[in-house]
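Worked example 2:
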Amino acid sequence: MTSANRLAVLSCAALVASTAAGCASATKVVTGGGSDSAITLGTTNVTKVLDPAGTYDAGSWMVLNNTFQSLLKFPAGATVPQPDVAQSCAFTGADTMTYSCTLKSGVKFSNGHPLTAQDVVFSITRMLKINDPSGPAALLSTIKSVQAKGDTEVTFHLKTPDAVLPAKLASAAGSIVDHAVFPADKLLSNDKLVGSGPYKIDSIDDLAGAKAGVPGKISFSANSQYTGDEKMQNNKFVLRFYADGEKLKSALDSGEIDVTDNNSLDPAIATKLRDDEAAGKSSTKVTEGDSGEVSFLVFNTKDSVTGNPAVRQAIAQVIDRQALVSNVFQHSVQPLYSVVPAGVAGHNTAFFDKYGEPDVNKAKKILTSAHVSLPVKLSLTWSRARAGDAQMAETKKQLEASGLFQVDIQKEPDWQAFQDGWKAGKYQMYAARWVPDYVDADDFISPLVVDGGAYHNGWDDPRISQQLVPDGIKQTDRGAAVYGQMQNIIADAAPLIPLYQNKSFYASKAEITGVTNTVDTSGIIRFWEIGRTKK
């Protein structure tokens, strides 16, 4: 997830491989109304904007998934959306052009205002009207209009068929806002946000770390107006932001936080924590499982150098994912050979099928055949990445060892400035990651490569954007062959190169429970599932 960004509920055993207690525990856990002792989660996913219409990053969506509701949701382990504010939703015809929902009665925002069909219509039309470049409006671009009938009936009329609409509405892009609070044509400041989710925001301090290394903090409490079916394992929750994984680990060691979020720790630290727990050397619990989070090298295709497909293809021919996985990540990630990750219907190995094992001679032939002068001088820019320094150093090492490239590494310490930079086309080659909005092949293609995609890299192929994507979202078979065709086209042009797919990794204090219920490919961290054993 960062811009335009399910078949059965899996058992806990299928989702989690952990050395901690699995789904069941003999320890008494705080349940019912939850504990009055706040649970504190630490993250390196710094964010600044929290209005659902204006933000599309992992840090902000972590907040939105816990403070707002949508018509539908993804419960723990679910691969198809299920009712949240809606009582029921369905397409009214076989052409997937009209989608209707009936809302539950009695739903309220945290300020006590009733949540009605008018709020749903307002939320969707507002997002599309504002169309913030940093927001998720593109996810809802197939919507032509939304109509309310009374307080409980909503109907979506689509421009084109979109079988994926329910999953999109179940993401934070479908967050329902109070029409009496949010302005219709501009973003609302963070301190005025009102939702209907399990939590309400009590305070925001130093959000996003105004200075590098200075953590921000958001404090939450249980929303007394919440009428959903989530069972609260705590009454208070705190989210703290850290500049990097080392500061996050120090906070865990000192007791400043109770649990780390998914994959914010440096891989070497994560691996040591896992090994120490297994050997009985540490009381810190480690929870691991599947993840849909992926990492890419992205190319500015409008740049005079990286705009040349031969340069991108030669880089794809040189990159050694296995070395990256081993040397940098200690096998805490897995190599990825397509934009659609393993475990998602429609995944293939398009990059391996085209390029095979790393081969310098093949890369050189690609460049010389295109009359590219050697060595090719490149700049690689990054801001936030797991094992960032080590990952960039390994990438530089691999490219320069070929004798075909000279690479200058640049770090942009400010995440917002980094995003602004790629939007402005300032970078040649840059590191980026994608956390899924919903687990579907479309969410790894449409948001990433259509008309420049989330990373604004300037690439678009009409075969994908004008034919295959529209064909794909009509398909009720989410593993349809059309997604393989799109992945093959992307591998051939290489506007971005998939590097690795994360595994979920959380570290927590011994008394923390429920982390297993946040570990699945949806990428959703469910604050309400995390509790603390009674002392």
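The mean pLDDT is 88. The first helix runs from residue 12 to 15.
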